[in-house]
């Protein structure tokens, strides 16, 4: 097998984040994650407790979100959403940085917001920060990544997936800007095995996708198993 694709299932945050997701959909995503051994299931705040219940006794983690997907929530609301997500059972939080601040060059405010969320969470909860890279110039992507590093988060993440998809070029830019200080998660429009390979080759260490099952079945077919 291609070394980049070894243990691919453990790269996936299996996403169930659309607004029309209901309890049945959340529980199905959790069942899929158990079956395929995904790293986590990503759900909106109202469904974190449901996912935690469905995944009880299972190594698959629950991933909650904050400020998702538009990013323009008040900072105190983002903090509260993240904190309550952890209380409901989330082991990781993906917050959306304020994209309006990023495109306006208000980087000190972005960094401070990330820091406030980070400091409100237990030390062992992983914080990823979504920057909507497709809305930013390369220079803004670099600056946003520096905000993520300085704010104390563990990952910078390309996109929510609501406003465009991840590219290998974006991932490469974020990896270079991070300089090993944080990891890079690629998310948005990831639907094929070839995309996964390209994004992992560019340096992503985690992948967010609602097509994780189809991709794993594609991998299985490619391996002839």
Summarize the structure.
This protein has 225 residues and is of the alpha/beta class. 44% of the residues lie in helices and 16% in strands.
Helix-strand layout with pairing:
Blueprint: E1 12-16, H1 23-36, E2 40-43, H2 48-54, E3 61-66, H3 75-88, E4 92-96, H4 99-103, H5 107-120, E5 126-130, H6 138-151, E6 155-157, H7 168-178, E7 183-187, H8 193-201, E8 206-209, H9 212-223
Parallel strand pairs: 1-2, 1-8, 2-3, 3-4, 4-5, 5-6, 6-7, 7-8
Task: Explain what you see.
The chain is of the alpha/beta class. It has one domain (3-223): Alpha-Beta Barrel (TIM Barrel), CATH 3.20.20. The chain has helices spanning 23-36, 48-54, 75-88, 99-103, 107-120, 138-151, 168-178, 193-201, 212-223, and strands at residues 12-16, 40-43, 61-66, 92-96, 126-130, 155-157, 183-187, 206-209. It has an eight-stranded parallel barrel with strand order 1-2-3-4-5-6-7-8, surrounded by seven helices. Helix 3 runs parallel beside helix 5, helix 5 runs parallel beside helix 6 and helix 6 packs across helix 7 (168-178). The mean pLDDT is 97.
Number of beta strands:
8
Helical coverage, percent range: 40-55%
Question: What's the structural domain tally?
Answer: 1
The succession of helices and strands, N to C, reads: EHEHEHEHHEHEHEHEH
Bulk shape = globular
What is the architecture at the second tier of CATH?
Answer: Alpha-Beta Barrel
Q: Which CATH class is shown?
A: Alpha Beta
What is the CA-atom radius of gyration, in angstroms? 16 Å
**Termini gap:** 12 Å
- Major beta sheet, strand line-up: 1-2-3-4-5-6-7-8
How many helices in DSSP terms? 9
In terms of structural class, how would the helical and strand content be classed? Answer: alpha/beta
CATH superfamily: Aldolase class I
Major β-sheet profile:
8 strands, parallel, barrel
Q: Which blocks of ≥5 consecutive residues have pLDDT under 50?
A: none
Question: Could you tell me the strand content as a percent range?
Answer: 15-25%
């Amino acid at each position: 097998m291609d070394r980049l694709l070894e243990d691919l299932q453990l790269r996936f945050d299996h996403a169930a984040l659309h607004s029309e997701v209901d309890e049945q959909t959340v529980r199905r995503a959790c069942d899929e994650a158990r079956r395929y051994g995904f790293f986590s299931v990503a759900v909106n705040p109202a469904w974190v407790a449901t996912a935690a219940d469905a995944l009880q006794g299972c190594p698959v983690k629950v991933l909650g979100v904050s400020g998702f997907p538009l990013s323009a929530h008040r900072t105190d609301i983002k903090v509260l959403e993240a904190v309550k997500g952890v209380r409901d059972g989330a082991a990781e939080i993906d917050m959306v940085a304020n994209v309006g601040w990023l495109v306006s060059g208000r980087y000190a405010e972005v960094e401070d917001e990330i820091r406030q969320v980070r400091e409100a969470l237990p030390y062992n909860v992983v914080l990823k920060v979504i920057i909507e890279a497709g809305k930013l110039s390369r220079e803004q992507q670099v600056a946003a990544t520096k905000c993520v590093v300085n704010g104390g988060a563990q990952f910078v993440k390309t996109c929510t997936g609501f406003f465009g998809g991840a590219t290998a070029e974006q991932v490469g830019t974020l990896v270079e800007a991070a300089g090993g200080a944080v990891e890079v998660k690629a998310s948005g429009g990831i639907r094929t095995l070839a995309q996964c390979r390209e994004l992992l080759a560019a340096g992503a260490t985690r992948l967010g996708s609602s097509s994780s099952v189809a991709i794993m079945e594609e991998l299985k077919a490619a391996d002839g198993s």
